[in-house]
Write a structure and sequence with these properties.
GNAT family N-acetyltransferase, eight-stranded mixed beta sheet, alpha+beta, Acyl_CoA_acyltransferase, 184 residues, 8 strands, single chain, acyltransferase, transferase, N-acetyltransferase
Length: 184
C-alpha cells in the first residue's frame, strides 16, 4: 500500500484527504438530511469533535492499510460536497466502497463519479481482486449509484443490520477484477 494518501481527479471532482480547517464544514454537511440515516457508521448527531477526530485519523487509517477516506471537492471552487471511502481487506484483496453526498449536491452524479475513481484506484494501485458495497434496501439512490459504476447486484441479506432499533435489509453489489478489466 502506498504510504502517502492519494489525490484523485475526475472531470468535476478532486478527491483528497480533508484538512483540519474543514472540520466545521464536515460537521455541518454530515448533520444534513439522510446522511446518518442512510449510512452504517455516521452517528447522529455528528459533533464537531467527531469531525475533528475523523480528520485526524484519515492518514493513519490509510497508512495501516485499513481505510481510504477522501473528501469530494468540486474542481474550480474546492467546495466540499461529500465523502467517499474504500475499506480495505488486504488478506482477501477486497475493497468495500462507502460514501455520501451533501443534500444540496445530490442527483448531480458526484457519488458515482467519486466511487468510480476510488474503485479504479483500488484495482490499479492497490491490486484488489474485488470491490463491492452494500446499502439499505430502502436506499434506492445508493443502489442506483452502485449499478451505474458497474457493480453487479448480488442479493439481499434480510434483516442484516440493526439501525435505530429496526432490522434493515441490506443489498449487496460487487465486481471482480476480470469484469472491471473488460469494461476498460
Amino acid at each position: 500500500m502506498p504510504a502517502a494518501l492519494p489525490q484523485l481527479t475526475t472531470p468535476r471532482l478532486l478527491l483528497r484527504a480533508l484538512q483540519m480547517h474543514q472540520a466545521q464544514v464536515l460537521f455541518t454537511l454530515a448533520n444534513g438530511p439522510k446522511i446518518a440515516d442512510n449510512t452504517a457508521n455516521i452517528p447522529a448527531p455528528y459533533t464537531l469533535e467527531t469531525a475533528q477526530d475523523f480528520i485526524a485519523g484519515i492518514a493513519d487509517k490509510y497508512r495501516t492499510g485499513e481505510l481510504l477516506n477522501l473528501g469530494m471537492h468540486v474542481r474550480g471552487t474546492d467546495e466540499l460536497v461529500g465523502m467517499v471511502s474504500l475499506r480495505i481487506n488486504a488478506r482477501h484483496r477486497y475493497g468495500h466502497l462507502g460514501g455520501w453526498v451533501a443534500a444540496h449536491c445530490r442527483n448531480q452524479g458526484y457519488a458515482a463519479e467519486a466511487a468510480s475513481a476510488v474503485m479504479d484506484f483500488g484495482f490499479e494501485a492497490l491490486g484488489l481482486q474485488r470491490v463491492g458495497s452494500q446499502c439499505f434496501a430502502r436506499n434506492k439512490e445508493s443502489a442506483r449509484v452502485m449499478e451505474k459504476i458497474g457493480l453487479r447486484y448480488e442479493g439481499c441479506m434480510r434483516q442484516a443490520f440493526l439501525k435505530n432499533g429496526v432490522y434493515e435489509d441490506m443489498l449487496g453489489f460487487a465486481t471482480v477484477r476480470d469484469d472491471w478489466e473488460r469494461c476498460l
